[in-house]
Amino acid sequence: MSGVKRVKCTGIEEYEAAVAANASSKPNLFALFTGTPDSNGESWCPDCVRADPIIERALENAHTGSCFITVYVGDRPTWKNPQCPFRTDPKLQLKSIPTLIKVDSVQRLDASQCSQASLVEMLFEDE
Hints:
Elements: E1 5-10, H1 11-21, E2 29-34, H2 46-59, E3 67-72, H3 76-80, H4 85-88, E4 99-102, E5 108-110, H5 117-125
Parallel strand pairs: 1-3, 2-3
Antiparallel strand pairs: 2-4, 4-5
Helix pairs in contact: 2-5
């Protein structure tokens, strides 16, 4: 794999701490918001399961020095709650998962876009 640092976190507070701790990776700081894995290690979110291998393949070609934060948004009831912090956060305003973003940028891929290899590759390649 390329020289990409990987960080995993759960919840919005851990996400904000991970972004702050890895700010030196900007502009190549990415975050994937996804469903929390179940006891079998697989996300409850079928779109997330579909997108995961595509994102993993594209990540192999990300710039050296990039940081990739996997953010678990919680179980299905937590995510579906309209007051879920990921939905209400003014910067994030997530509407669907998976969502892949370039932190502190307008670049984002939502749900089905995360399963399109060309779009995911473009997000990682852009400076």
